[in-house]
Design brief:
- By secondary structure, this protein is mainly α.
- It has three helices and no strands.
- α2 (22-49) packs antiparallel against α3 (55-80).
Length: 88
């Protein structure tokens, strides 16, 4: 049997020393409304697990799905917007 634990330690140790770059943090900030909307949808779906679905739950889930779609649209539109001001 060949132990692989030593190989894993050398692979993962180097990756923990890095912090996210400014560009990565900016990308997360751009996507934060989408992340929040998806978390809200997940909360609404989880609340539905423990009890029978009523009209209020249906509305909450529908609104959360609409927020997710709107956030996806906004993130997509922001990503495809051409840069101006000499940035090429």
């Amino acid at each position: 049997m060949i132990p692989i634990a030593a190989l894993q330690a050398t692979v993962t140790a180097a990756s923990l020393d890095f912090e996210p770059s400014a560009a990565e943090l900016d990308a997360i900030e751009v996507e934060m409304p989408l992340i929040r909307a998806e978390a809200e949808l997940l909360d609404a779906l989880i609340m539905r697990i423990d009890r029978p679905v009523n009209e209020l739950d249906v509305r909450r889930i529908r609104r959360a799905r609409n927020r997710v779609m709107a956030a996806r649209r906004d993130v997509t539109n922001r990503a495809t917007t051409p840069l101006t001001g000499g940035a090429a």
